[in-house]
Amino acid sequence: KNQVEQSPQSLIILEGKNCTLQCNYTVSPFSNLRWYKQDTGRGPVSLTIMTFSENTKSNGRYTATLDADTKQSSLHITASQLSDSASYICVVSAEGNKLVFGAGTILRVKS
Amino acid sequence: DGGITQSPKYLFRKEGQNVTLSCEQNLNHDAMYWYRQDPGQGLRLIYYSQIVNDFQKGDIAEGYSVSREKKESFPLTVTSAQKNPTAFYLCASRRGQGPYNEQFFGPGTRLTVL
């Protein structure tokens, strides 16, 4: 069964600190993996996309990594800001362009 | 929100009523999607359409219906047959069928059944 699991479910950090969110997947065949940011009450917005041949991809203070062998991805946020408070969703694209969504990690950045 | 609009933002429904959620896009995208989001769960696909006048059931289509009469519009009707309709509904669109083509999401509609 295609699944995407994210951890932790929620996280609270102080402004300026770094954090890392995890994503494990059992999707086959694998096409690509995206990280989305979803602000409360809004639609998700894509942060990064990686294919199986890419190990890392950056978008400003966001850096995603992918290990296709262990089927794990992480999203590292550097020097967090209050505006980083959101849900971060890992999405894996499977055969036939079917998207499998993780439940998300809720991040709260405190001042 | 990438040129996708959803209305209304909040919707309240009495049990037994049908309601229709609007989704419009001006991105000239061929494919459009409806998802349901519940707390603690990943987005689940309700219906999708790859071209005008054609649509396919997703994973949780029961109790929902759609139409695709125009490329820009993909309304979702939540019928009284949907037993637990309270959720956040997201519409998305995508250009073409390439695996790396991004899905752009609308701002969502929160439906509450009273």
Structural commentary:
- The complex is a heterodimer of chains A (111) and B (114).
- Chain A has 111 residues and is mainly β.
- Chain A contains no helices and 11 strands.
- Chain A has strands at residues 4-7, 10-14, 19-25, 32-38, 45-51, 56-59, 62-67, 72-77, 86-93, 99-101, 105-110.
- In chain A, strands 2, 4, 5, 9, 10 and 11 form a 6-stranded mixed β-sheet that branches.
- In chain A, strand 6 and strand 7 (62-67) form a beta hairpin.
- The N and C termini of chain A lie far apart (41 Å).
- Chain B has 114 residues and is mainly β.
- Chain B contains no helices and 11 strands.
- Chain B has strands spanning 4-7, 10-13, 19-25, 31-37, 44-51, 54-57, 64-66, 76-78, 87-94, 104-105, 109-113.
- The radius of gyration of chain B is 13 Å and the shape is globular.
- Chain A binds chain B through residues 4, 9, 31-32, 34, 41-46, 49, 51, 89, 93, 97, 99-104, and chain B through 1, 4, 40-45, 88, 90, 92, 97, 99-100, 102-103, 105-108, 110.
